[in-house]
Amino acid sequence: MKSSRLKILTIQFKSLGDAVLSVPSLMAIRQRFPDCELHALVTEMAAPLLQHHPAVNRVWAVPRKRAKTGLKELRPFLRALRALRAERFDRSVDFAGNDRGAITSLLCGAPERLGVVMQNGFWGRRFCYTTKIDRGSLEIPESLRLLRILSPWGISPPANLEIKLYPDPKLSSPFSCDSSKPTVICNIGAACSKKVWPVPHWVRLHEMAVARGYDLWYTRGVFKMDEQLIRDLEVLAPGAKILPKLDLPNLLVALKSADAVISNDTGPMHFAAGLGVKTIAIFGPSSSQRWGPIGPGTRILATTGCICQRDTYVCRRAKHCLEEITPESVLEHLESLLPSRPIAPPVYLRNQSAA
Predict the structure, then answer these.
(1) Which CATH code fits 183-337?
(2) How far apart are CA 128 and CA 259, in angstroms?
(3) How many angstroms separate the Cα of 164 from the Cα of each of 20, 139, 275?
(4) Where are the domains of the chain?
């Protein structure tokens, strides 16, 4: 016998950052339907971001492999669809707007299915939803755009956007920081090179920040390019403190233990802001207005006149767009968020025997 409790499925088949930016929508659904049973379907990689969130009753993790559509890759997806259909959801909402999200909406079996009208994608998308809403402006914060998708359910965006992430409470910090100094974690990698602040800029920032009394640590990313960036950093800044490669649950705990995070435009930037950590974001080709981190303790440094297109992997300018953002400006923002504790000058005692 089906429970009378409203059962809702949210679908977000996109990147880690997209999963974070959908959190305000999950919180808004919980506020509008406080007694509902709320399930969130995300990619396998993104599941730890929502696993401990109090707004969500259950997280469904499905593998997502780009450019792989063979039967072997589809089997986990098909198994998940069968399990989802057995849940007998009352409503679903597809935040992703991609083909897999649309198909999941249709096959999950919910009688009310909310989705976004998109110009691209497969021809049958329009039959996947019972209620369709316009994609909306791309010149507003992405979290706000996602919230507006929920308007047919009587949900209005809150006066103040906020994102709250909850790391695994059973995990402890994977590194030991110097409690006498402000701890700053730096994320120097990104999914593509056009979003990477030049390593020499990181080195200059490192020299100045350490001299001001900050304790800097650097993350190891998951991409091959990230390893090369770390090797370059180790050559140019011998002694720089490098964190071990961490899975997402441990990375969240590490970020939470920092006093501040400095990051390129990539997932850890959103993680830090969602964890309530003071965050400095370095932006180039992406719209900082749409994709910037949310929270009162955030600062965004963005280039002007960037000509990089969405479909390019590298910066197309002769001089990388992000070189315009100076280490001095990043340090200035860091000190505005997190005043340093200056290193005391050495005290020279008079040699009594020589007197």
Answers:
(1) 3.40.50.2000
(2) 45
(3) 9, 23, 6
(4) 7-153, 183-337
Average pLDDT, the chain: 88
Backbone phi, psi, residue 43, to 5°: -70, 160
Contact 272, 259 (CB under 8 A): no
d(CA 88, CA 9): 10
Write down the pLDDT at residue 51: 96
Give the model confidence (pLDDT) of 240-272 as tens digits.
Answer: 999 999 999 999 999 999 999 999 999 999 999
How many other C-beta atoms are found inside a 10 Å radius of the C-beta of residue 173? Answer: 15
Non-local (6+) Cβ contacts of 67 within 8 A are none
Residues 231, 140: Cα–Cα separation, whole Å: 37
Cβ atoms of 189 and 196 closer than 8 Å: yes
Per-residue pLDDT at 30: 97
Buried b (16+ CB within 10 A) or exposed e, 181-202: bbbbbbbbbbbbebbbbbbebb
Residues 59 and 48: their CA atoms lie apart, in Å, by 9
pLDDT at residue 352 in the model:
40
The gap from C-alpha 89 to its chain's centroid, in whole angstroms, comes to 28
Residue 241 contacts residue 258 (beta carbons within 8 Å): no
Superfamily of domain 7-153: Glycogen Phosphorylase B; (3.40.50.2000)
> What tokens does 177 get?
């920081």
Q: What is the mean pLDDT of residues 159-176?
A: 93
Terminal C-alpha separation, the chain: 95
- What's the pTM value of the predicted model, to 2 decimals? 0.88
**Cα gap 101→93, rounded to integer Å:** 9
Per DSSP, which regions of 139-182 are E strands?
none
